[in-house]
Prior knowledge:
Elements: E1 2-4, E2 11-17, E3 21-25, H1 37-49, E4 54-60, H2 71-86, H3 93-103, H4 107-112, E5 115-119, E6 124-127, E7 135-140, H5 147-157, H6 165-173, H7 177-183, H8 189-195, H9 202-208, E8 213-216, E9 223-227, H10 230-239, E10 247-252
Helix pairs in contact: 1-2, 2-3, 6-7
Amino acid sequence: MIMQxxxxxxxxxxxxxxxxxxxxxxxxxxxxxPENLVYKAALLLQEYTGQAKGAIINLNKNIPLEAGLAGxxxxxxxxxxxxxxxxxxxxxxxxxLSLGERLGADVPFCLTGxxxxxxxxxxxxxxxKLLPDFGVVxxxxxxxxxxxxxxQQYDLTGGGTRPDTKGMLEAIENKSLSGIxxxxxxxxxxxxxYLYPQIKSLKQALVREGAVGAAMSGSGPTFFGLCENGxxxxxxxxxxxxxxxxxxxxxxxxxx
Length: 256
């Protein structure tokens, strides 16, 4: 599949600590113990290097939880990079990629960023030509979904139409927003919409308001719409009428 980073991001601050991993987070209900990917990344790094020192990690969440936006994977990637610097481990980037693969399929991409063709389980990454700063509108319903449940249902029923990856690669090479928009596809979209019918109209709503193309992100339930620039993204978000509790987030393609 083809993966792309956007400007929406969490913020992690790393401080030295004599021993142990302590995580604080500004989002109520988010586990900060061993089940948290940030904690798992820190522990894995300690085990891999034999590092005895600890760290205090302050996590400021902006990426919605259970949104299909790889927020946890991005935080794990940031932890690998941040603690590699804090503890002066001097690990090579290839080592961080290998550790990231052990944490989750999306973590290697989150370490790499940009525009990437991902193969295998997500660990084989081919960088593509970087895209312009297209505007992006995200719509997140007031509920999350279980990725495991989505894949289980997908295995039972099968998914939608397979993406035209070759065509998408050509559109990216040409930096054609119209071509990219017309070829957006996610095989999990039909499955998630079957389980959560509330999201069925989101793609049409984004396109109706002016997005060049739209699709579901990951296993959902968030949908994204692509547009020419940030001004267009702001206009689309402003005109979208959504039920109470639904999030509208304006961001952009991010290659830094």
